Amino acid sequence: MNESNENLIWTIKNGEFEAVQAQFLNSNRNVNDCIGGRAPLHYAADFGQLKVLKFLVKIGANVNSLDKYSVTPLLAAIWEGHVECVEFLLQKGADKSGTTPDGRSYLEAAEKQEIKQLLSQ
After folding, report:
1. For the purposes of burial, counting CB atoms within 10 Å of the CB of 87, is it exposed (0-12), middle (13-18) or buried (19 or more)?
2. Where does it sit, as one GO cellular component term (predicted)?
3. Which of 44, 59, 102, 105 has the fewest beta carbons under 10 Å from its own?
4. For the chain, how many structural domains are there in total?
5. Nearest to 33 by CA among 5, 74, 55
């Protein structure tokens, strides 16, 4: 992984919004290109960075992309318990009918009641 990619992952994980914005707006970087087997949206969902998540979707991130583990950004947010990220991804058309790599439904994988409620709607 090159330094630019490592820097992008770091800025996403830490919610450094302006730095993430600059990485995409000042380059020809594709928002859906995988870095380390995961799309930028996966990292934002994993770390609960809602503002970054919204920006990535706004510039064309695929809310149903699969990472190298067959995990979607929605499942990453479910596993990490990021209610607002789950809600946003569902509003943007994320498929809640997927399954975890071990075959459980997203509803079964959810631990937080608020997320279970969102997935049941």
Report:
1. middle
2. BRCA1-BARD1 complex
3. 102
4. 1
5. 5
Of the candidates 105, 52, 49, the one whose C-alpha atom is nearest the C-alpha of residue 77 is: 49
pTM (two decimals)? 0.95
Q: In this structure, are residues 96 and 110 in contact, taking their beta carbons and an 8 Å threshold?
A: no
The secondary structure of the chain as a DSSP string is: --HHHHHHHHHHHTT-HHHHHHHHHTS---TT--BTTB-HHHHHHHTT-HHHHHHHHHTT--TT---TTS--HHHHHHHHT-HHHHHHHHHTT--TT-B-TTS-BHHHH--SHHHHHHHH-
C-alpha to C-alpha distances, 28 to 23, 32, 86, 102, nearest whole angstrom: 9, 12, 28, 36
Residue showing tokens 């990220």: 85
Tell me how far apart the alpha carbons of residues 29 and 89 are, in angstroms, rounded to a whole number: 22
* Domain carrying residue 19: 3-120
Q: How crowded is residue 21: how many other Cβ atoms within 10 Å of its Cβ?
A: 16
